[in-house]
Design goal:
The chain is an alpha+beta fold. The protein has helices at about 5-75, 160-175, 180-185, 185-200, 255-325, 335-365, 375-395, 415-430, 460-465, 490-500, and strands at about 80-90, 95-110, 125-140, 145-160, 210-215, 215-220, 230-235, 245-250, 375, 400-405, 410, 435-445, 450-455, 505-510, 515-520. The protein has a five-stranded mixed β-sheet, covered by helices on one side. β1 (about 80-90) and β2 (about 95-110) form a beta hairpin. The longest helix is centred in the N-terminal third of the chain and has 71 residues, at about 5-75. It is elongated. Keywords: Kinase, Membrane, Phosphoprotein, Transferase, Transmembrane, Transmembrane helix.
Length: about 525
């Protein structure tokens, strides 16, 4: 994949993911705000309903009390009748409309002390209204004189009109405002009404309430009530006809936020879980893309190295064969032997490379048969050194052993474990720019034997050290062919040691050499 296209795709996917997260967060915030607004509207309706019921109950109480007093008085102290007439004639229909409205004012001698107010001597009076509507039709008699015949008569006798009733209630409200608040409403009544109204609206939430007069607390309030503006709701109580009132009924909900969140927690959790899944999936996909890109580059390097390493032996073998074909070569047997040795060595070299690839392939498919027997680690170390000591001597180096472990018997596969040690020693030789100087140590740590292979070669950076056991990974040192290999040796080492329930790790510093540790459980 083109590098620019890859970067563009990553940027677009990242922006899309950020957009999804932003939309989810905005949705959750909007849902909470909507729930809070809906809750506030519901609470406002609850308070208005409670106030209305309290005021209606107060008026009813006084009205019932007033009727009882009127019934007990029995006789009127004074009665006055006021009557209004209205006459209208319709020329088209020859109809005459007569309307009369009489108001009967009855005084029973009840003063305002009825409202627990000894400072006002205004009397309480009862009003009864009488409305009469008559329609006459004008007819001409035989003698030519007009005669009026009543067509319809409507008479209504009842209580005061709405306007008159409003006037009475206004007067009533003015007087009862002088009554102490604790005599007009009780804590039990308010608590019962608020609780019932909330329950009717499916709100099961603890609340605190209080009645305040001109901003000051009254006796009508709960102990835990506070004036926190963020959690309280307010409505006027006992308002006059103009909507003014010295009293305010306030209600607060200490657990409001928890209640609002709990109402959307289900959908919010699902949204968050799906968002996390998307983030994890995206991160995994991005990691795999980057990983595959790295593996692709590593495999390209592997193919280049493999081609280079096969090309050289093949060319050497071809040259040796051409030399042997020359008739003059048979005159010098030493040259023939030398050419044959070159062919054999190069053939072994290619065979070893193919074996490395096949080993890794079998390990990946779990097809490698590893049978373990009781073996001596020290014997395996000596065997591995014998495979590489000629190369070390040829380069003017050395391998010194310090086999000091008191116990060295382990359960291992002799062939594979020898290959493990050979691979580590081969790396120490290849990555030593000068003459290889290698020391091999053994020691017992608790129930394990530890093999330490130390060189004085080129060393590794911390970044390289973290990845040396990855398949196909090799440190680039300018020319990728200046050190032979395919990044398979240490991957093979890691897999074999893991299969032996052991550990392998390394320490290194650039230009100061490396130390490889192999740790195996003792029998």
């Amino acid at each position: 994949m083109n590098k620019r296209l890859f970067i563009a795709l990553v940027i677009l996917m990242s922006l899309s993911l950020i957009g999804i997260i932003f939309v989810q967060g905005y949705w959750i915030k909007t849902a909470v705000d909507n729930k809070e607004e809906q809750f506030s509207n519901t609470v406002s309706q609850v308070l208005q309903s409670v106030v209305q019921r309290v005021e209606q109950r107060e008026i009813k109480d006084y009205s019932d009390k007033l009727l009882q007093i009127i019934d007990s008085v029995g006789e009127l102290k004074e009665s006055t009748l006021n009557e209004i007439f209205y006459i209208e004639k319709n020329e088209n229909s020859n109809e005459t409309f007569i309307y009369s409205h009489g108001i009967l004012e009855e005084d029973y001698g009840i003063t305002a002390t009825f409202f627990d107010n000894s400072f006002d001597s205004t009397a309480i009076k009862s009003y009864v209204s009488k409305r009469t509507t008559i329609i006459y039709r004008e007819d001409k008699g035989l003698d030519g004189k007009s005669a009026y015949t009543p067509v319809e008569k409507i008479q209504k006798i009842g209580n005061m009109s709405q306007i008159e009733k409003a006037q009475f209630e206004d007067y009533f409200r003015v007087l009862v405002n002088r009554v102490p608040i604790h005599k007009r409403v009780s804590k039990a009544e308010l608590e019962f009404l608020i609780q019932r109204e909330l329950k009717d609206r499916n709100i099961d939430l603890d609340f605190e309430y209080g009645v305040f007069a001109n901003g000051l607390a009254t006796k009508i309030k709960t102990r835990a009530f506070n004036l926190n503006k963020n959690t309280r709701y307010k409505t006027p109580l006992f308002s006059d006809t103009e909507g003014n009132s010295p009293y305010s009924l306030m209600v607060s909900f200490p657990k409001k936020k928890k209640f609002l969140i709990s109402s959307i927690i289900g959908m919010a959790l699902l949204s968050i879980i799906f968002t996390i899944i998307i983030i994890v999936a995206y991160s995994s996909a991005l990691f795999q893309l980057i990983r595959q890109k790295q593996i692709s580059e590593i495999k390209t390097d592997f193919i280049n190295n493999m081609t280079h390493e096969f090309k050289t032996p093949i060319a050497t073998i071809n040259l040796a064969l051409d030399a042997i074909k020359n008739p003059k070569a048979f005159e010098d047997p030493d040259k023939v032997k030398r050419y044959l040795k070159m062919i054999r060595d190069e053939n072994h070299r290619m065979h070893a490379q193919v074996e490395n690839v096949l080993r890794i392939s079998k390990l990946d498919k779990n097809q490698l048969d590893i049978n373990k027997d009781r073996v001596d680690v020290h014997d395996l170390i000596e065997d591995a050194i014998s495979h590489v000591e000629l190369i070390v001597e040829d380069r003017g180096g050395y391998i010194h052993t310090h086999l000091e472990a008191e116990k060295s018997m382990v359960l291992a596969n002799e062939s594979h474990f020898t290959n493990v040690l050979v691979n580590i020693l081969d790396n120490a030789i290849k990555y030593s720019p000068e003459s290889p100087k290698i020391d091999v140590f053994t020691e017992v740590v608790k129930n394990h034997v530890v093999i330490r292979i130390q060189d004085q070669g080129a060393g590794m950076t911390k970044a390289v050290l973290k990845r040396i056991f990855e398949k196909f990974y090799r440190e680039h040192t300018g020319d990728i062919h200046n050190v032979k290999g395919h990044g398979l040796g240490l991957a093979y080492v890691k897999r074999i040691i893991d299969d032996h329930q052991g550990e392998v790790y390394a320490e290194s510093e650039k230009n100061k050499g490396s130390i490889f540790y192999v740790k195996l459980p003792l029998i």
